[in-house]
Fold this sequence. Notes:
6-stranded mixed β-sheet, binds flavin-adenine dinucleotide
Amino acid sequence: MRIAINGAGIAGPTLAYWLRHRGHDVLLVEEAAALRSGGYVIDFWGLGYDIAERMGLLQGIGERGYQVREVRLVDADGHRVGGFSTDVFGRLTQGRFTSLRRSDLSALIYGALGNSVETLFGDSIAGIEEHRDAVRVRFDRAPSRDVDLVIGADGLHSRVRRIVFGPQERFELPLGYHVAAFEVEGYRPRDELVYVSHAVPGRQVSRFSMRDDRTLFLFVFRDEYTPRDRLWSRDDRKSLLASVYADVGWECPHVLAAMRSVSDIYFDRLSQIRMEHWVRGRTALVGDAAACVSLLAGEGTGLAMTEAYVLAWALASYPRDVAAALVRYQTLLMPFLRRKQASAARFASSFVPRTSLGLAFRNVVTGLLRIPVVADAFIGRDLRDDFELPAGA
Ligand SMILES: Cc1cc2nc3c(=O)[nH]c(=O)nc-3n(C[C@H](O)[C@H](O)[C@H](O)COP(=O)(O)OP(=O)(O)OC[C@H]3O[C@@H](n4cnc5c(N)ncnc54)[C@H](O)[C@@H]3O)c2cc1C
């Protein structure tokens, strides 16, 4: 089949890999001028880790990954008030857990394609028309093409979803927070392999020291600190962060000063995508486009890879019936993704508590995670993936 995939993040290249494996003719379309680099760090384990192993990526992941030792919660003076050793993740996943840049994972997956897949960078699918024998795809730049199947792997704000299924608002469930991230060079202090985090009611800021003397900062704050329904330019993002974090203490004055020279700031609502169907006619969605779980699940990349893998498996299992394959993909995975979404959403209210009492409670609970039975109760269930990957995508 000729298959056009919009989005070369995590799900798109994973799907391209497994489709090429079966000999399909794949076109990747990515709106960025090149694969995105830099950016935030993700935790990576579970089904995604298993699929990465099947793709031969574990060595590269090991080289680029960070074996974080500790999550440390600190007060305004930098004194430890909570947190835990990340041994708990290693123990619960039999050592199959790492942290790495999302963009490094994306580049590794894309690299596994070699030259087997045509990619249109700096372009996007702009129109999809189904005809009896083919789907006519229009692009922003390239001339139109006929394909047999269109895949939206274009993330939380998927354009393919908008074109085929309807407006974003119909499917987006905001979880009550905004997220921002940026990185700077030469920041001090550094704490190697420690994720350091400071919070006041409703606002949290964390830093992680990376290779090449870079430091990543992640901000998570409740929606009440953000004027609604605004598009945020880079300068607006900076002034919003500067005002939201002006009185948060700790290293914030220093961090906000470092932000002035930054050219790239990630900024978005913290949302999930909840849909009844991921398939319409000859278009299907994968990854965040279909079922974004949000950063609260800590597993969106692995789940995006799972959806891509299972979709490729379903197409291989029903070679003469694409419609049946797409339905199989959806029915097999949707209940699992719903459970993952529900558990991430449950976690939302306690992620950055609204009150000092809530924060104090969170600090105590995280301190208890060094006790295995407590860790199993609080983390174990969410870390486990109760879904078995089919063999042979
Ligand atoms: C701050 C933060 C922390 C996170 N932490 C974790 C974590 O710890 N563990 C974890 O597993 N996950 C984490 N996630 C979630 C994870 O990043 C996503 O779930 C995952 O990247 C989804 O992969 P995807 O391929 O579906 O989408 P994306 O990775 O978003 O890729 C989508 C791609 O589509 C492209 N695109 C977008 N629009 C268009 C268009 N119109 N035309 C063409 N291309 C387009 C984009 O440029 C991008 O390359 C985190 C997310 C955030 C924001």
